[in-house]
Amino acid sequence: MSAAYHNGQAATGKHGPETNSGDQRITALGPFCLPSVRRRAGGLGLIAIALLPTLTLAGCGNTRSVASNATQIDGFRAGVVADEPRAALIGRTAIAAGGNAADGVVAAYFAMSVTLPSAAGLGGGGICIAHNADKKTTDVIDFLPRSASGGAVAVPGNVRGMAALNARYGKLPLAQLIGPAEGLATQGVPVSKALARDLAQYGQLLTEDLSLQATFTKLDGTQLVDGDNMRPVDLAATLGQIRAQGVNIFYSGLLGQKLVEGAQAIGAPLTIDDLRNFKVQIYPPIETPFTDISLYVAPPPASGGVMTAQAVSLLAGGDNSPASQQAIAREIMSARASWMKPDGTTDQALAELVGADKVKALSSQSSLALPQENTSGASIVAVDSDGIAVACAFTMNAPFGAARVAQGTGILLAPAPNDQGVGFTTLSPVMVASKFNGQVYFMSGASGGAPGALAEALVLDAVMRRAMPLDQAMQLPRAYDDGTQQIDEGQGVRLGRLNAIFCSEATPSDPDSCQLRNDYRGNGLASILGEE
Predict the structure, then answer these.
(1) Residue 531: beta bridge partners?
(2) With contact defined as beta carbons under 8 Å apart, do 441 and 432 qualify?
(3) How much is the CA Rg of the chain, to the nearest whole Å?
(4) Residue 415 pairs with which residues in a beta bridge?
(5) Distance of alpha carbon 497 from alpha carbon 510, whole angstroms
(6) Residue of 186, 156, 184, 162 lying closest to 175 (CA atoms)
(7) Which strand (E) or helix (H) includes residue 272?
(8) What is the value of pTM for the model shown?
(9) How many angstroms separate the CA atoms of 457 and 450, rounded?
(10) Is residue 103 within 8 Å of residue 171, measured between CB atoms?
(11) Residue 446 vs residues 73, 192, 208, 402: alpha-carbon distances, Å
């Protein structure tokens, strides 16, 4: 059976009951079957649990939705956390259909390209850290949306990036993972609270593109809101072609040529050579000691990982109060002005950058001239009981990217990164694992700019150094200071938005110890799959 509910408690196999009321339906799509989501009035975060038979998964007949007052799972199998609820559910059901955590992330991403295009459209890019406990390997998979040759638009990286993750870590055919997203776009999907939030905040950016107006406005010309139906038919056709003909159709085939022509028709200088030459980069993460295991972050130019590792080092002093967080942020941002170039890269030795002493030394040398940065993004994290773990962060380089669609494709284009608030420099997927036995303990992804990267450190420090449950760690008040302004959540602002999984006794040795949490500051979902 499956049970889905909305509560204020971490999703884990070892926590107690929660009452539910209300109902929000999610329908079956593509080759997977999705349960309804029960929404409790006044709740703060979404959590879904599915219990599936151990022997067979005979289609959707073995999965049904019920209201539940229990959070206990006998036999944790996998979990997916994403910034958009339907994406998390589709990721979970991909795993239920025979996939692993990597397949869950890929399926969730393609779903999110439909349900949260403001931050994770096909025209954007991202970066992942993936871990295989059995092989004791940890990789960075880099498909960041870098500038095309014309300099004004970014080359789409998400399609090839997810294909690389699937090929290297996944089990299911890529086509099976794209199918549910195609179904969402074809049948239409209600606007989620996550997308409605972005439309409310940035909807004024969408008025110049007729395709965007057709997708995100009602017949009376007013903007779509939470629960309104959205049906991006051009995007459905694009996803269908990728599913049927493979990734190369997007980067070098007829679909790629259509994308180029559509982009050039609106003045975006994207060429077929830009698409053909786009390569996913796979390389080792920065590794730094953390307790008696290893913290893995992505190296620059997605430099949020360096900031997260630096904050973890500075938090070792013991004080995590808002005042201490602001002092740490000031040091990190000041140091960053010394080591980071405008494009996010650095000439400094990466291993040295993450140490507390190095941060203090660089901070004292800095004049603190910080670039503006993009705070828009989305993340997905997943883990399974076999020890496959993935943390990914995605961006369009700006909210809704360039706010223009390549005609006839439904693909929202991303602008080329610059030092004026457009880009990917603060993306920060995080992984904590043992390089000796492969056991994995923690993974997270964040958005919200530098405050998001620093919030990851706050939560990681709380669960692994202070033995705090993940749910409580997510509720810790956050504060930030970049040297020009002091901000804390007591002022009514929300700082960062992250998705996290914490396995206190590690997986695969004790997967029942895994806790999942989407951020209270967002509108995502933490989704658990268990075995009966």
Answers:
(1) 52
(2) yes
(3) 21
(4) 153
(5) 27
(6) 162
(7) helix 272-276
(8) 0.88
(9) 11
(10) yes
(11) 27, 19, 30, 22
The DSSP secondary-structure symbol of 153 reads: B
Q: Looking up tokens 């994770």, which residue turns up? A: 120
Cα distances (angstroms) measured from residue 380 to each of 63, 112, 145 = 23, 10, 17
Measured CA to CA, the distance from residue 159 to residue 396 in angstroms comes to 13
Tokens of 373: 């940065």
Q: What is the pLDDT along the chain (532 residues), one digit of tens a residue?
A: 333 322 333 444 443 322 222 222 222 233 334 333 333 233 334 456 554 432 223 333 333 222 222 233 668 999 999 999 999 999 999 999 999 999 999 999 999 999 999 999 999 999 999 999 999 999 999 999 999 999 899 999 999 999 999 999 999 999 999 999 999 999 999 999 999 999 999 999 998 898 898 899 998 889 999 999 999 999 999 999 999 999 999 999 999 999 999 999 999 999 999 999 999 999 999 999 998 899 999 999 988 999 999 999 999 978 999 999 999 999 888 888 888 887 788 888 887 888 777 777 877 765 555 666 778 899 999 999 999 999 999 999 999 999 999 999 999 999 998 877 787 888 999 999 999 999 999 999 999 989 999 999 999 999 999 999 999 999 999 999 988 889 999 888 999 999 999 999 999 999 999 999 999 999 999 999 988 6
Q: Give the pairing of strands 65-66 and 2-7.
A: parallel
Q: Tell me the two tokens of residue 186.
A: 């074809």
Backbone φ, ψ for residue 358 (5° rounding): -65, -40
**For residues 526 and 381, what is the distance between their CA atoms, to the nearest angstrom?**
9
In this structure, the number of other CB atoms found within 10 A of the CB of residue 370 comes to 16
d(CA 114, CA 194): 12
CA dist 528 and 15 (Å) reads 13
What length does the chain have? Answer: 532
- How many angstroms separate the CA atoms of 417 and 401, rounded? 10
Residue that has been written with the tokens 């698409």 in this structure = 275
Element (H, E) at 236: helix 233-245
User: Interior CA angle at 375 toward 370 and 377, to 5°?
Assistant: 140
Spell out a b/e string for 505-518, using b for 16 or more CB atoms within 10 Å of the CB, else e. Answer: ebbbeebbbbbbbb
Structure tokens at 109: 């991403």
> Which ranges of 122-192 would DSSP assign to H, the alpha helix?
158-169, 174-187
Among 144, 58, 87, which Cα is nearest to 394's? 144
Q: Are 7 and 18 in contact (CB under 8 A)?
A: yes
CA distance 391 to 109: 12
For residues 303 and 346, the answer to whether their CB atoms sit within 8 Å is: yes
Q: Report the C-alpha gap between 306 and 110 in whole angstroms.
A: 28
Burial class (CB in 10 A: 0-12, 13-18, 19+), 253: middle
Q: In three state form, how does the secondary structure of 101-129 look?
A: HHHHHHHHHHHHHHHCHHHHCCCCEEEEE
Distance CA 250, CA 267 (A): 20
